[in-house]
Amino acid sequence: MLDNLSKSLCKIIENISGKNQLNKQEVEKVILELQRALIRADVDVELVFQLSEKIKSTVLKENAISTASDHLITTLYKELAKICGAETKFELKKGKPISILLCGLFGNGKTTTAGKLALYFKRKGKRAALFGLDTTRPGAMDQIEQIGQQIEVPVFIDKKSKDIKQVVEKWKSEINTYKNNFDVLIFDTAGRSMLDKGLVEEIKYITKEIRPDYRFLVLGADIGQSAKKQAELFKNAVGINGVILTKMDSSAKGGGAITASAMTGAPVYFIGTGEKMEQFEQFNSQRFVSELLGYGDIQTLMEKIEDLKKSKELEDTNISDISQFDLNTFYSQMNSMKKLGPLKSIISKLPLFSQKIPDDMLEVGEEKLKKYKFVIDSCTKDERKNPEIINLSRIKRIAQGSGVPEREVAEFFKQFKLMKTMLGEAQDGKMPKKYKNMMRAMEQQFE
Ligand SMILES: Nc1nc2c(ncn2[C@@H]2O[C@H](COP(=O)(O)OP(=O)(O)OP(=O)(O)O)[C@@H](O)[C@H]2O)c(=O)[nH]1
Ligand SMILES: [Mg+2]
Predict the structure, then answer these.
(1) Of 114, 107, 275, residue with least CA distance to 188
(2) Ligand 1 atom at minimal distance to the Cα of residue 272
(3) Looking at 260, 285, 310, which one is the last position of a domain?
(4) How many domains, in total, are found in the chain?
(5) Residue 10 — very low, low, confident or very high, per pLDDT cuts 50/70/90?
(6) Which residue puts its alpha carbon closest to atom 1 of ligand 1?
(7) What is the pLDDT of residues 268-301, one digit of tens each?
(8) Which SUPFAM superfamilies match (predicted)?
(9) What is the DSSP letter of 277?
(10) Do both 118 and 258 map to the same domain?
(11) What are the backbone dihedrals phi and psi of residue 19, each rounded to the nearest 5 degrees, phi first?
(12) Per residue in 323-372, pLDDT tens?
């Protein structure tokens, strides 16, 4: 997601993380780099300017000649999170049906998103229904019909009518029945080009008649600088009160999209991350910025670990004293990693880990764990407690005893050593400085 922007931002953070204090020139240099990175990613120029002014005035308060690098990082994080929108979870009130209208220019993903939303609500135990209001594009009705069949959600369409007024009148006259039978009514509308005056008139008309509770603008992450114009167009026409970003999987730039919330004044509620119906998730601006800045999705990782600990699936492998870290603790760590399963995808987003841990160490499968167990069983008590004493002749002996090839035995000890070094450094407070900054930024966000 937004790989290029993320790379540039990570580089900026890396450069300042190493320094304690930054003087005014250095701050200005960082801001200049930030501006370049954001503009290259298609973030609106005016917004970039406002953001940089805000950061500058916050970190260099009262004509200070220098600032702590931590302060700059936390400010950067906070301000970026702000332009990506407030934290707003989409929640349904019990017993109160809602209607959602999707609008946007053509090809941005409205119809696909209508299906994704319906599936999202269905999985939450809600009764969702789709309504086709695209009487313009040939095949539009078939498309939404197929989507409905695929996700097993009722679809209301009028294939014969090409007259939007007729279709709207029909659904409007029956809307109370639908509201009694469903929790969420989702209306898919026609997409056109920005130059098409008829589009604005049509969407205004539909909104006036149907009076949807939510008017979501569907924006593709690949639209670049034109996001601002689109946002304004639909904001003025229907008073957008939510945004859904699609194609977050495929956009290299996406700057228009990340600032869509700032531009519409409406929160980004969801993002689409692929063509499949399941590739859809709630948007969380803090997590998003955290990933952009290379801190990875720490929150998700922590939640996952906590859940597993609660369900007792994960042993508590906290090691308070690094000298206690031996082959036995190493084995239980590996065992835990296996339980976390898809953690690899999360860990690989954490630069701290991804740089240090080889891929095959993150892919701990059943087979490998079995081998590790044989290796450990073939070690003497002394070797288990002090694996530092392992040498070539011991490796040979262990390989014979365990039936695991020498090369793999050697690899096992190499990985043990690597993990011990990493944990040692982490405990010395050398490595996680970046993470400490991040946590502080997150805390400050709520102050
Ligand atoms: N990669 C990717 N493709 C998507 C996503 N959302 C939609 N698409 C694709 O974008 C294309 C257009 O999607 P539609 O849902 O038909 O877009 P639309 O806005 O309804 O288009 P019109 O009705 O013509 O205005 C399709 O090929 C979708 O599969 C997404 O999140 N990721
Ligand atoms: Mg469509």
Answers:
(1) 114
(2) 31
(3) 285
(4) 3
(5) confident
(6) 274
(7) 899 998 999 989 988 888 778 877 776 665 555 5
(8) Domain of the SRP/SRP receptor G-proteins, P-loop containing nucleoside triphosphate hydrolases, Signal peptide-binding domain
(9) T
(10) yes
(11) -105, 150
(12) 777 888 777 766 666 665 444 444 544 444 444 455 565 565 667 778 88
